[in-house]
Amino acid sequence: MLSIGTYPDVTLKVARKMRDVAADQLQQGVDPSQYRQEQKQLKQLSVENSFEKVAQLWWDNWKTNKTKRHANYTIRRLEADIFPIIGNKPITEITTPTLLMAFKKIESRGALDIAKRALNTCSQVFRYAVGHGLAERNPAADIKPSDVLRPAKSRNYSRLSQKELPELLRRIDEYDGQPLTKLALQLMAITFVRTGELIGAKWDEIEFDMKLWRIPAERMKMRTPHIVPLSTQAIAVLEKIKNLPGSTSLLFPSERGNDRCMSNNTILYALYRMGYRSRMTGHGFRGIASTILHEQGYPHDHIELQLAHSARNEVSAAYNFALYLEPRRQMMQDWADYLDAIKAGAMVLSVKTAR
Question: At the top level of its lineage, which domain of life is listed (predicted)?
Answer without folding.
Answer: Bacteria
